[in-house]
From TrEMBL:
The keyword Membrane applies. Residues 278-395, 740-848 form the ABC3 transporter permease C-terminal domain. It is found in: Cell membrane. This is ABC transporter permease. It is a multi-pass membrane protein. Keywords: Cell membrane, Membrane, Transmembrane, Transmembrane helix. The keyword Zinc does not apply. Its main location: membrane. The chain crosses the membrane at residues 277-298, 325-344, 364-389, 410-429, 435-460, 497-517, 734-757, 785-809, 821-840. Signal peptide: none annotated.
């Protein structure tokens, strides 16, 4: 049997090329997403500042929520500090030579002109304690350590950038107003990478603790081991000593995430990307591969019918098709793993360009994604082969040969039932935002759109048949005889045509759902932010943020009625649903509550934002978050703050503009006390009635001397930091979709080429009865136009309902934001690809003499 399979594949290479291409593309796509997931688990960048530390102890990077016997865990989005008192406990563990409490806080060099001194590669500096210098490979090249307030030690690259040496002075912007510091020493980094990602400024221990802002907490505890101590064993001993304490213990590459919070955040985003699209990618590849294999077998129906008629048993047919699937899928899947490195590097560069990952973030490559891609490819091919073979052997041998020359007039009952069921489920999910205002409804509607697209893909033959009947009269009137011939072809071969139209619908529908929901959300967020900021000025900073003290200084300026610092974070809320805990992540903002109504208009429906001034355990929620959490004004909601602390906060207001300002609004003090944020993202400023605007603008500009990097945006507006976050989120989600859309596009071309080349004998017959090559081409152009029209209309209409309901749920408007140029680009690219995939093979087929082509095999 295996020899027969090999001979069949060898003799019918052209018939198996389509399946090979589909499986090869599936393997490339799955391996690429596997590399993204593996990179999210890996280190990303080498260890630098903690290179001399055998073990690093940091705050627990996750939290637990328990309801009854059910427990759920969620990772925290940012760095989590650890109790300072644990440094002494850690130092008492056998094998520990020294335990050093390390701090990290924003620090920037300030030039003589008052501007922030950035390096050529835009690297950010950080402030830390002089005691922490022993945790990294730093060699002193001059001076001494920082021992008293007002003294600093610079890393050599920073000293060169500032143009200072030991004994000189440097101006630094920190979490306080900028100040002059004496440079008492210079150290040089001598570790891996050659250049530090975040060159440190070492302060005296007392001053570092003051600038860090929390005396009870440190960023991490670095452990220096005694000679000959194994880091893994030491980590186990420390873990036992600190048992019951919420900490994470790192060795090896894991230390990198502690010293580089931006890398840890990037790894989290990569895991989110892989997780959110991984299942969709696998489903799409399975649909495409199954459809391609089924089309290949369908084109061989005469050969398989003859085998059944001469006595081939169902078991033999199953084995033969399974063998063919294995022979094609195994090498295609293996070869598809090979280009993963260049493909992933291109993807990494693009993700770096839009700010999803740092520029020096390195992707991880290993055998697991490749093995998974091969396994999925082979398994998908076998399942598809079994389904096709089952259909072939279901026909009685006597009927098999007579039925092979024509297409089945109807679909199988199981396919129809499953397709209709998916369509009903997709419709039901798409309507959820009409009845519920929670995030579940919006997410369900988005998923419902994809389910409906897949349902139409399964029901494509009857959809194509009905669409053809609608187009019959206008096409016959417009194109005459060739139009009638094209209509007759599509009616008689609806299943064959559906094999080509289905991927076209999938391409347009998938792109519409995945791209236009984010564009609708982003557009609504920008509109809400622009309308909601009623302050006269918004201040942001090039130094990475605005020190909180700046808000108080600005509030005291003559002519200023109100000023509020705002800081953006991510946090979680949880509630009990059906005896199980459910956790929701939200964008949140911390704001100074004093006179907030003079600065922000969040469109409060219930309650009053002034209630945020009653204490740090108060909160205001968007209407969507309130609905999801089942809370109203006066109720308590369970929040999990950025450091994992749990807070039962009382709801004081419910507002509508959650997209523009975050679904959760907290008092500024609650956010600063429980997050790694030491700086505000922006400061909102409102002028007093009758104030001289030009005079206040001058006073604000004067304030920037005290707080270097401060930028004033006139007439309010969305802060720069928030604009960057929104853009990175939108493009970061859209970029991997390009890979998926590219694979679908290849599948479209692959399927249409297969269906077109399968009609070579049909073209030859038309020419033998008198049709010229140009007439055949005109017929195919007419048929291609019909194919494109059906695909564009179906691919546009099917996702339109969920897009409208999602827009209604998010923005209270049923009109989604669909960028015209983006939509036209999707349609134009898909249509051009379809036209090329049909007309070019047709032109090639017409080069063969009709008398030769009519005798060719199927």
């Amino acid at each position: 049997m295996f020899r027969l399979v090999l001979k069949t594949v060898k003799e019918r290479k052209s018939g198996f090329v389509g399946a090979f291409v589909a499986l090869f593309g599936a393997s490339v796509l799955i391996t690429a997403f596997g590399a993204i997931l593996q990179s999210g688990i890996g280190s990303g960048v080498p260890v630098q500042r903690y290179g001399a530390a055998a073990v690093v102890v940091a705050g627990k990077q996750e939290f637990l929520v328990t309801e009854g016997r059910n427990t759920k865990t969620r990772s925290l989005p940012g760095p989590v500090g650890v109790a300072r008192s644990l440094a002494g406990t850690t130092a008492s563990v056998p094998g520990v030579r020294r335990a050093v409490a390390d701090l990290r806080f924003p620090t920037e060099l300030v030039g003589k002109d008052g501007e922030i001194l950035k390096g050529d590669d835009d690297r950010r500096t950080l402030g830390t304690t002089w005691a922490g210098s022993v945790l990294g490979p730093f060699a002193r090249v001059g001076g001494r350590g920082a021992e008293r307030p007002g003294e600093v030690v610079l890393e050599k690259s920073l000293a060169d950038r500032a143009g200072v040496a030991t004994g000189g002075t440097v101006r630094l912007a920190t979490t306080r107003a900028a100040a002059e510091f004496k440079v008492v020493g210079v150290v040089a980094y001598q570790g891996p990478g050659g250049t530090l990602r975040s060159p440190p400024v070492f302060f005296s221990d007392a001053q570092a603790r003051e600038l860090y802002g929390r005396d009870d907490q440190v960023s991490a505890i670095g452990v220096l081991a005694t000679k000959g101590t194994d880091p893994g064993e030491l980590a186990d001993r420390i873990g036992k000593k600190l048992g019951g304490t919420p900490v994470d213990i790192y060795t090896g590459d894991g230390r990198s995430g502690v010293e580089n919070p931006d890398v840890a955040a990037a790894r989290g985003r990569l895991k989110e990307l892989a997780g959110s699209l991984g299942g969709t990618v696998i489903l799409i590849t399975m649909l495409v591969v199954s459809s391609t294999l089924a089309l290949g077998v369908h084109q061989r129906r005469r050969e398989l019918a003859l085998l059944r008629a001469v006595g081939a048993t169902p078991r033999q047919i199953h084995k033969m098709i399974a063998g063919e699937a294995l022979v094609i899928s195994l090498p295609a899947s293996v070869l598809g793993c090979l280009p993963v490195v260049p493909a992933a590097e291109v993807l990494r560069g693009a993700l770096s360009l839009i700010g999803v990952v740092p520029g020096d973030f390195a992707f991880s490559y290993g055998p697991v994604p490749m093995l998974a891609a091969v396994a999925i490819g082979v398994l998908t091919a076998q399942v598809a082969g079994f389904a096709v073979a089952r259909k072939v052997v279901s026909i009685r041998p006597v009927e098999a040969l007579s039925r092979s020359g024509t297409e089945e007039p109807t679909l199988g009952r199981a396919r129809v039932v499953f397709g209709v069921l998916l369509l009903v489920l997709g419709l039901a999910a798409s309507l959820l935002p009409l009845f519920f205002g929670s995030i579940f409804a919006v997410a369900g509607a988005g998923s419902g759109g994809l389910v409906m697209v897949i349902a139409i893909l399964m029901l494509a033959p009857p959809v194509v048949g009905r669409a053809t009947r609608l187009l019959a009269r206008p096409f016959q009137r417009r194109f005459g005889t060739l139009g009638r011939l094209a209509v007759a072809n599509t009616r008689a071969n609806a299943r064959r045509l559906a094999a080509g139209i289905g991927p076209l619908i999938l391409a347009i529908g998938f792109a519409s759902v995945q791209l236009f929901i984010p564009t609708t959300t982003s557009e609504a967020a920008e509109e809400q932010a622009a309308a909601g900021v009623i302050a006269d000025y918004t201040l942001s900073s090039d130094a990475g943020g605005v020190p909180p003290a700046a808000t108080e200084d600005i509030r005291r300026l003559p002519g200023v009625e109100a000023a509020a610092g705002t800081v953006r974070i991510k946090l979680f809320a949880s509630r009990k649903l059906l005896d199980s805990p459910e956790i929701f992540d939200y964008d949140a903002q911390g704001v100074t509550p004093r006179k907030l109504d003079r600065l922000l208009d969040l469109q409060v429906d219930k309650g009053d934002l002034a209630g945020l001034g009653q204490g740090p355990d108060t909160v205001a929620l968007s209407d969507g978050a309130a609905s999801t959490l089942g809370a109203g004004v006066g109720d308590r909601v369970r929040l999990h703050l950025p450091d994992g602390a749990r807070q039962e906060a009382r709801v004081v207001a419910v507002y509508r503009r959650g997209l523009g300002f975050g679904d959760v609004t907290l008092p500024h003090e609650a956010v600063i006390a429980h997050s790694s944020a030491r700086l505000d993202d922006s400061v909102l400023v409102r002028l007093a009635p009758g104030a001289d605007k030009q005079q206040v603008a001058g006073e604000l500009a004067e304030t920037s001397r005290k707080y270097p990097g401060l930028k004033v945006m006139d007439e309010g507006g969305l802060p720069v930091a928030e604009q960057r976050t929104a853009s990175a989120g939108l493009f970061g989600s859209a970029l991997p979709l390009v890979l998926v859309f590219g694979y679908i596009a290849v599948a479209v071309a692959n399927t249409l080429v297969m269906t077109t080349l399968g009609r070579t004998r049909e073209f030859a017959l038309l020419r033998l009865v008198g049709a010229t090559p140009e007439q055949v081409m005109r017929m195919m152009r007419t048929e291609t136009l019909m194919v494109i029209l059906i695909a564009v209309v179906a691919g546009t209409v099917v996702p339109l309902l969920p897009l409208m309901t999602v827009s209604l749920g998010l923005t209270s408007s049923p009109v989604p934001y669909i960028p015209p140029l983006l939509y036209l680009a999707i349609v134009a690219a898909t249509s051009a690809l379809a036209a090329a995939a049909v007309l070019l093979p047709t032109r090639m087929a017409l080069r063969t003499r009709p008398v030769d082509a009519i005798g060719m095999r199927e």
